Amino acid sequence: MSKSVSGITQRNKRSIQEVKRQRHDDNNEKGNRSEESRNSSKDNQPPGRHDSQRAATFGLWFVGVVGVLFVFFLFSLVFAETTVTVYPETADISINEMYTASNNSDVNSVPFSIITVEDSVAVNATTTGTEYREESASGEITIYNDYSDDTIRLVPNTRFQTNDGLIYRVREAVSIPGQSSNGEPGSITVTVYADESGEEYNISNTNFSIPGFSGTVYEDGVYAETAGSISGGIAGDIPIVSTSTRQTLQEETGTELEENLRKSLANDLPEGFILYEDGIFFSSHISTSKNDEESTTALTVDGEVRAIVFDARQLSSFLATNYSNDVSSQADVRIQDLHDFNFQITDRESLTPNEGASFEFMLEGESQIVWQYDERALVRDLRGLQKDRLNEVLVNYDSIQEAEVVTRPFWKQNLPDDAADITIQTVINR
Q1: Phi, psi angles (nearest 5°) of residue 313
Q2: Higher model confidence: residue 228 or residue 197?
Q3: H or E stretch including 9?
Q4: Inter-CA distances, 357 with 67, 76, 171, 279, 391, Å
Q5: What is the rounded distance in angstroms from the CA atom of residue 201 to the CA atom of residue 300?
Q6: In the chain, what are the domain boundaries?
Q7: Whether 286 contacts 244, CB under 8 Å
Q8: Fewer CB within 10 A of the end CB, N or C, for the chain?
């Protein structure tokens, strides 16, 4: 607005600061109007667009949760397992006693078996000349009584004949044990000597009949077979090797032979049998030399290891029933770590280890008696069983103290129907 005074027009004057403040206020007002306009635009959007966004977010979460649950379900199926941990009945045992080992069916003795392994090594020796020599072959045979459960006695010099007509004799009287209660033939191993000298009497893997029983009731029921090799027979010139040389060769080669035979014995030991160090017997024999050259000859050192072994089940049952009246003779038990017990044969030097022998031994050790159970039968009884009914099955197993079941996934309440899917784990309480 302007005023005119005396023809002069006068305008309102503003300072520069006022102008700036005005512009600033104008800008702020425009900004506020712009923000209000945007907010108003948002508020005025259609409602369906908001619902679509929320639905999309919910769908993503739902798919994720379902995916995780599906993966977890597959994982539980792939890694599903059922383990039944069994705690059998146990009892402590501590023994330091003298016992008798015999195969005469005496309930007061422990039955045993003999395992034999053999090998030979050829060595060269320097000769000192030749000489004519006649020697009879000798070796061991096993005589069987498959006729009756009564002992059969053979007189000294009883003859044994091969299919080729070779005759061998025992020098002492022999008593052959009768058949066992389960019908197994009684047997005894003895030494026989060839009737004549000569190399043809050196044999192995041969069967024998007893000419004196020909035409009698014993003819087919009493027989024999070689228990190793029969050797040493000769008739002719042989190279001479000094006694000291032969002895040295036999000792040196015998050490190597014994080591190898012991390894073979350990590898060939039947499962379930126990072998003690004091039950191993080694013997060696150096054969009569053969004249290969004028200055040297080949000798053969034959080695043999005989081992007394025990069936772990029979030995455990015998020791447990003799130790405690609480162990029935019909109970199936095992003594833990029985092979670690101290075992010593009384009068070992005079013992000739064979199936018909009888000897005393000292056994000392501490361990546990563990009652055995039929694992296969238990698995069959557990198939498809509800976990909370486990005790209904265990009442039929007196040898089991307790058991527990773990299933994966944890929510499974029934054991698998397939026996192959049930794992049995035996734990011995110490």
Answers
A1: -65, -45
A2: 197
A3: strand 8-10
A4: 75, 61, 18, 13, 49
A5: 17
A6: 17-78, 79-90+373-426, 130-239
A7: no
A8: N
